[in-house]
Amino acid sequence: MQAEKEEEEASPEEYVALCDFTASGSEQLGFSTGDKLLVHAKPSADWWWAELQGVIGYVPASYLRQDAAEDEDDTSLEDPWQDDEYFGSYGTLRLHLEMLSDRSRTETYRQVIVSNSASLRNKVVMDLGCGTGIISLFCAQLAQPSVVYAVEASSMAEHTRQLVKQNGCEEVVTVLQGRAEELELPEQADILVSEWMGNCLLFEFMVESVLLARDRWLRDGGVMWPSSAALTLVPCQADNYYSEKMAFWERPYGLDFTPLQPLAQQEFFTKPKFSHLIDPKDCLSAPCDVICLNMYTVQEMEGEFKFCVVKPGVFHGFTAWFTVQFESLEAGGATVELDTGPNSDPTHWKQTLFMLDKPIHVYGGDSIRGNIVLRRNPVWRRHMTVTLHWNINSSSDNCQVGTKSFPMWR
Ligand SMILES: NC(=[NH2+])NCCC[C@H]1O[C@@H](n2cnc3c(N)ncnc32)[C@H](O)[C@@H]1O
Fold first, then answer.
1. Strand order of the sheet with strand 367-376?
2. For the residues 185-204, what does the mean pLDDT come to?
3. pLDDT at 10
4. What percent of the chain has a predicted confidence (pLDDT) above 70?
5. For residue 300, is pLDDT > 70?
6. Which of 4, 65, 97, 300 is deepest in the core (most CB within 10 A)?
7. Which protein residue has the closest C-alpha to ligand 1 atom 17?
8. How far is the CA of 195 from the centre of ligand 1 (A)?
9. Which residue intervals define the domain SH3 in the entry (predicted)?
10. Mean pLDDT of 276-282
11. pLDDT-based confidence at 67, cuts 50/70/90?
12. Cα(95)–Cα(334) distance, rounded to whole angstroms?
């Protein structure tokens, strides 16, 4: 309460509106892009108490930005996809080296090409976001497509052309530099292959470009690789992480640093922990696919779950990972799957850990029901907020309900 009290007396902070917001209900305050709002209090992560020209009401925090250097931020207002930064990062080798070094990922795409090589003969392939061109080179080397259009928006494209020539594939592979949504392909494709998956499956939202390209360049009856995807979730223990970031403050060097624990919760548990490697023994129940994307239809971004706790333990949070499936070009042929979960070969995505604010003791037979909602950031198009609602029904004491939103990253 003390913190809240001080918060209300603090002087209001100035924020700028990044996009329009229409109030729904008398409690809310509507505004337009560029409005300067005075934030008086932040009762929750999602909704703040703000003032605009003498009118006060609740506003969505994700629509606001605190302006340090005004002119500097204005440029970022125009580029919600932050393409300069995004494609800039793919113009250097760092990320491509990380992806190429991920054998589980890269060998899976090679296996897809090999096991469909006969059916790929004389086909037109579009490789969306080809990067260094590895998938296109597999197609040219391991099958006989008539042409592969390797599409890459970053400056890596000019190096990719060199790699195509260096490996004698220039007869088959044509590198096109540009955004897949904007460039012109000489013809429709029979297969649209892409490695678009980000952390927690969707982060970066490259999937949006894949679906736009599908609608524009994949011929009727054409095949999407991956053909489907699933986000998987499991309630878990995270003792080491919890001890390292929270329990640490209990007795460092014999002193009591617990007043810092609210800060630690805010700093370490607000955003998901990427590159988490969960030990299967820390899973408190069987995992569950909570969001399934059919790459041919409109996708769901929301999913329900019901976990049955199999052993007593401490419920520190949820861990998420994903799987993608590649259907065979031959009717009845085997589907290839890439699984980034803890029971498969590790990948560069690892898993994503969502820490609750307070750990909860759970017991065998307890149920953890709820849902997960992935909401696009209305302003930063490659970012999202993951909101988890859970409801624990435990034989030992009454049910506990909780909810938490995790920004990824803004
Ligand atoms: N699995 C991922 N999370 N990222 C790995 C693939 C990303 C590659 O696709 C390129 N890329 C991403 N979006 C696009 C686009 N719309 N058009 C062309 N290239 C793109 C990007 O420059 C990078 O080389």
1. 302-308, 367-376, 384-393, 400-408
2. 94
3. 64
4. 93
5. no
6. 65
7. 179
8. 8
9. 10-69
10. 97
11. low
12. 31
Examine the residue annotation and report whether 204 is marked as an active-site residue of this protein.
yes
Q: Closest Cα to atom 20, ligand 1: which residue?
A: 129
CA 219 vs. chain centroid, Å, equals 28
Go through the chain and tell me how many residues it has.
410
Taking residues 349-354, report their average pLDDT. Answer: 97
Sequence-separated (6 or more) residues with CB below 8 Å from residue 284: 234, 235, 236, 237, 307, 309, 310, 311, 313, 315, 362, 368
Q: Angle at CA 161, nearest 5°, toward 155 and 162? A: 105
Select which of 9, 85, 195, 327 is catalytic: 195
Pocket test for ligand 1, best of 130, 206, 211, 408 (most atoms within 8 A of CB): 206
Mean pLDDT of the chain: 90
pTM, whole model, 2 decimals? Answer: 0.79
User: In angstroms, rounded to a whole number, what is the distance separating the alpha carbons of residues 53 and 250?
Assistant: 46
**Which is it for strands 124-128 and 189-194: parallel, antiparallel or unpaired?**
parallel
Does position 278 have pLDDT exceeding 50, yes or no? yes
Residue 35 contacts residue 29 (beta carbons within 8 Å):
no
pLDDT of 140 > 60? The answer is yes
Alpha helices in 44-125 (DSSP H): 70-78, 83-89, 93-101, 103-115, 117-120
pLDDT tens digits along 302-342: 899 999 999 999 999 999 999 999 999 999 999 999 999 99
- Report residue 320 as tokens: 């998420």
Rounded to 10 deg, the angle between the 156-166 and 134-142 helix axes is 20
Atom of ligand 1 nearest to the CA of 199: 3
d(CA 129, CA 119): 23
What does the angle CA 187 – CA 88 – CA 181 come to, to the nearest 5 degrees? 25
To the query of whether residue 27 is one of the catalytic residues in this protein, the response is no
From atom 2 of ligand 1, which residue's Cα is the shortest distance away?
196
